[in-house]
Design a protein that fits this description.
It is built from four helices and 18 strands. The protein is mainly beta.
Length: 352
């Protein structure tokens, strides 16, 4: 979108665009062995590879790509993936959380095959020189052999955080390092990849590479599956500022980003999961509940991450914004869903 089209009239608005062996299978299901994706695959039960709670203080932003062609589709027939993505990305909201330290954990028992721990974390902007990385796109990481052809890889770990060595035996839940942004990474996360005989396997829909059309299964331990339910879209952060948000602002929000004497009041929201055709509505209310600014748009493409903002300049006759609670609201609606996928309201209090 041209920059000029983001600022019509007195309002500020805009966007920053970031049927073999059927009897055995039936018996296995009756016995509760749902961790076996297919009768041809050896069993593997995975624990969470991160020391956080998905949907609360961390999120799955990308899943494995199931489209064999140039497109991209996740296991839920959604758009939380990109072409050729071979794993599951568990992310934290901000760089502050990354620096505080979120442990990456072994998802199953095994032996460490290889590590890398000398690469720096990328900048807050997420802009990385891909050519300079060469073959080290996954950044710092750990590779674990689980036996029977199974491996798991943990990529983009924080610089200097790897806590294991090659040849070391590890147990499920044992710390391997910390979530980071090393290698080709646009946000703080761990790329968790599962492989069977060197072929990527989706732990949410695990299929034998030799029989890709056979029904898939789930490799996650049944106890943790409820917190791994599919989430179509999530808010990562939101807030108020006097300037148009940028990658640094939303990735590492400052403690104070608005002053009552600032010339503009802008409400912003940083979220992921937007799909083409979604209706995105953002509003700004004054302390009396009157709408100061409002904008609705229809998303024209899938977006891995989106920043929406809306603002209002301070009236020239006022030396400061009036006291009271100003409210920002953002709603994301999608055809086929009764309730909005996202509905948030956030307040900022301006004191007298």
């Amino acid at each position: 979108m041209p920059a000029a089209s983001c600022f019509p009239g007195p309002r500020l608005r805009g966007c920053l665009a970031l049927a073999k062996r059927p009897l055995r299978r039936a018996l296995l299901l009756l016995l509760g062995a749902s961790s076996l994706a297919h009768a041809e695959l050896p069993p593997l039960s995975l624990q969470l590879p991160v020391a956080c709670v998905p949907g609360e203080n961390c999120f799955i932003q990308n899943h494995l790509d199931h489209d064999p062609g140039p497109g991209a589709v996740d296991y839920h027939h959604g758009s939380l993936t990109y072409d050729g993505h071979k794993g599951t990305d568990f992310r934290v909201r901000t760089f502050q959380e990354m620096r505080a330290g979120v442990a990456v954990l072994a998802a199953a028992d095994g032996v460490v095959k290889a590590i890398r721990d000398h690469m720096p974390d990328g900048p807050a902007s997420g802009l990385v020189d891909e050519q300079a990385l060469g073959e080290r796109l996954a950044g710092n990481g750990v590779l674990i052999d689980h036996g029977d052809g199974w491996e798991s890889q943990y990529g983009h770990l924080r610089a200097g955080s790897v806590a294991v060595t090659p040849g070391q035996n590890v147990r499920a839940g044992e710390p391997l390092g910390l979530i980071g942004q090393s290698g080709l990474a646009q946000f703080p996360h761990v790329h968790f990849e599962v492989r069977f005989n060197a072929q990527p396997i989706d732990p949410f829909d695990a299929r034998d590479p030799a029989h890709p059309d056979a029904p898939g299964g789930v490799l996650w331990n049944p106890r943790i599956r409820p917190i791994l339910s599919y989430r179509h879209a999530e808010v990562l952060s939101s807030g108020f500022s006097s300037a148009i948000p940028d990658a640094t602002l939303v990735g590492d929000p400052p403690e104070a980003s608005f002053n009552p004497r600032d010339k503009a009041l802008i409400f912003w929201v940083n979220f992921f999961g937007a799909r083409r055709g979604d209706k995105e509505t953002i509003r700004l209310f004054d302390p009396q509940g009157h709408i100061l600014a409002e904008q609705s748009d229809i998303a024209d493409k899938h977006q891995a991450r989106t920043i929406r903002y809306l603002g209002r300049p301070r009236h020239p006759s006022l030396s400061r914004w009036p006291a009271g609670n100003f409210t920002g609201e953002f709603i994301l609606e999608r055809d086929g869903f009764v309730e909005p996928l996202i509905r948030i309201r956030k307040e900022i209090t301006i004191l007298q």
